């Protein structure tokens, strides 16, 4: 099995590398960045992690998925500037919605400060 994870958040999608040779206990230890607006339109604040098995000569197989609700994390991060969810186990369910394992995920939300300065397209750096 060569599993990888597709991570989805509000129409954005990222993909991990395939964990080759790790058997039934793969480890990715990768970081992904998503653009987040909080509060934003729609209240569907969740990460969906789809675990897939990479196949060379056929389409990749769906193994299972986990859903992580992040509204509380975003609310704290928006108020305090940053918030962290330490690595936590999340249940993975297959296409029949049956438990088929766990995935450990840690999350950090860091508020991006708005820059109120106007940009002048490089004129500040120019010699006149």
Chain-wise SSE layout:
Elements: E1 3-9, E2 12-15, E3 46-53, E4 61-69, H1 71-80, E5 82-93, E6 99-110
Antiparallel strand pairs: 1-2, 1-3, 3-4, 5-6
Structure, described:
With 128 residues, the chain is mostly beta strands. The chain has one helix at residues 71-80; strands spanning 3-9, 12-15, 46-53, 61-69, 82-93, 99-110. It has 1 helix and 6 strands. A hairpin with a 2-residue loop joins strand 1 (3-9) and strand 2. It starts with a strand and ends in an 18-residue tail after the last strand. This is C2 domain-containing protein.
Q: Strand share of the residues? A: 35-45%
Stretches with pLDDT under 50, minimum 5 residues: none
CATH class, named Mainly Beta
CATH fold annotation: Immunoglobulin-like
Count of individual helical segments: 1
List keywords for this structure.
C2 domain-containing protein; 1 helix; 128 residues; 4-stranded antiparallel sheet; 6 strands; two-stranded antiparallel ribbon; metal-binding; Immunoglobulin-like; mainly beta; elongated; single chain; calcium; C2_domain_sf
Task: Give a quick precis of the structure.
The longest helix is centred in the middle third of the chain and has 10 residues, at 71-80. The protein has 128 residues and is mainly β. It has one helix and six strands.
């Amino acid at each position: 099995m060569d599993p990888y994870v597709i991570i989805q958040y509000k129409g954005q999608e990222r993909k991990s590398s395939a964990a080759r040779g790790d058997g039934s206990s793969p480890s990715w230890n990768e970081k992904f960045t998503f653009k987040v607006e909080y509060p934003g339109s729609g209240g569907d604040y969740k990460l969906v992690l789809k675990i897939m098995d990479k196949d060379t000569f056929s389409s990749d197989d769906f193994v299972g998925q986990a859903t992580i609700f992040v509204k509380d994390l975003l609310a704290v991060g928006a108020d305090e500037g940053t918030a962290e969810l330490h690595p936590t186990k999340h249940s993975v369910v297959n296409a029949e919605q049956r438990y088929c394992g766990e995935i450990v995920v840690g999350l950090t939300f860091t508020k991006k400060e708005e820059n109120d300065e106007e940009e002048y397209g490089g004129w500040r750096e120019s010699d006149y």
